[in-house]
Amino acid sequence: MNIKVKSDIEIAQESKMKPIVEIAKMIGLEEDDLELFGKYKAKLSNEALAKIKTKETGKIILVTSINPTPAGEGKSTVTVGLGDAFNLIGKKAIIAIREPSLGPTMGIKGGATGGGYSQVLPMEDINLHFTGDLHAITTANNALAALIDNHLQQGNELNIDQRRIVWKRAVDLNDRALRKIIIGLGGPLQGVPREDGFDITVASEVMAVLCLATDIKDLKLRLSRMVVAYNYNKEPVTVGDLGVEGALTLLLKDAVKPNLVQTIEHTPALIHGGPFANIAHGCNSVIATLAASKLADYVITESGFGADLGAEKFLHIKSRSAGIRPEAVVVVATIRALKMHGGVAKQELASEDIPALTLGFANLKKHIETIKSFGLPVVVAINKFITDTELEVKTLLEWCQRENVPVALTEVWEKGGAGGIELAEKLLSIIGNEENNFHPLYELSDSIEQKVRTIVQKVYGGKDVEFSSKAKKQLIDFEKFGWSNLAVCMAKSQYSLSDDPTKLGRPTDFTVTVREFKPSIGAGFIVALTGDVMTMPGLPKKPSALNMDLDENGNAVGLF
């Protein structure tokens, strides 16, 4: 007998939301603390953010995962369900996650609002234009690009070398045709001809800056430090040199405020910022995370992709920048992803395969080791799918027990918060009882080369790093410019621990190649580009957009 399983969007559309003013009251906020976007969405006002700063700080729990399959592993679903579970057992909790990008939403991965009965609402709005934050970031990015080209046109007082402009335009879509373009054609009145390109908005440094800023003053300072080009003496030119940091800050005046929404079970959720973890630092905004920690006893937050990417960047970049200390880390694992790491093809993942599952444990083990190397307690959450067999689940549970790793079967997609109670209780049992010696794996005083090598060897399990001739020259220049004491943000494939997406499981004896570096001085890190990771993704052969529509009643169809 075939049982029809409701889609995420059907579940979301059948759910009844409470007015956002009621959700705000659950966390001690009044209507005057909100800037309303209709009945079910709101931003926290600057006055509200200032008012809560003196409150006691809650405990922060980070959710990450193993290396995912192309469809993702339900990390956001577990994050949402865990927040609901904490509230179900009487603990005051808030969820703090990223905003979705239209790139993957209309591409291959779908939205980022959770799934099943563990979703944030209104799902359609959040996955589309929400409160306009990503559009504001796109506008600020492109306003800066226009101002740079206008500076060239109007006499180029800063002696910018048009061949060395590193600031790209941005759009929040996957559009491979825009990776490399020529602009300024058509004669003297149309601008200065030069090569240019587009990044996806979530890879823009404006996004990273907004997500790492602690307030408006810090935002403006960070924007001013962004490097946009080099002059004819090969010296960096910044936004501050152009004198436009004030204008960019003005464009972001509303986008910098966190967004308040709710889950299906009415747990408050702050959704703000959306950098990818494979090409950026992959964490929601510092402002939202810190605000959540002042409004609840427990904050459930996530970082993008696996622990080798999002969690490493949360712990090395976001935590260090904002003074955040996580209490524990959840590593989400799925039977299907583990089987893929054990050699099973994507189309065969629904079939039981214990040998492949067992081989896949090596990937999970490396991520557990990585989190422990930061001195943090770790719990494994098995995100259960309907295709998982009893024997497969039993095999994974027994492996975790043999490894002496706390584990909880998580059924939040099907059961909402009730399916995450075991995980919530497991976390409560270790927070404060297990040793927490959180520490970074490298010091900011280490050279950039040392930092990259530390991440490759200690987090990825690689043998060494190879730097291209361009990257080596950049290292010399960065040392001269005084940038060596910044954190490193690795741009790497999310599917493998290595820089080769085809090497699944736990590859060993591999070398990671850094082809070039990209300075993100406003964000406070140096991006190391590896493999063929691109800052403007492309669409798949059959993008999710093919299934999307709007019915005659104005309801979205095909979002997931």
Quick description:
This protein is of the alpha/beta class and 560 residues long. The chain folds into three domains: 8-17 and 56-131 and 255-430, P-loop containing nucleotide triphosphate hydrolases (Rossmann fold), CATH 3.40.50.300; 134-248, Domain 2, N(10)-formyltetrahydrofolate synthetase; 448-530, Formyltetrahydrofolate synthetase, domain 3 (Roll).
Q: What does the model show?
A:
The protein is an alpha/beta fold. The protein folds into three domains: 8-17 and 56-131 and 255-430, 3-Layer(aba) Sandwich (Rossmann fold); 134-248, 2-Layer Sandwich (Domain 2, N(10)-formyltetrahydrofolate synthetase); 448-530, Formyltetrahydrofolate synthetase, domain 3. Helices cover 36% and strands 19% of the residues. It contains 20 helices and 25 strands. The strands form six sheets. Strands 1, 2, 3, 4, 5, 6, 14, 15, 16, 17, 18 and 19 form a twelve-stranded mixed β-sheet that branches. α7 (133-153) packs across α8 and α14 crosses α15. The two termini are 25 Å apart.
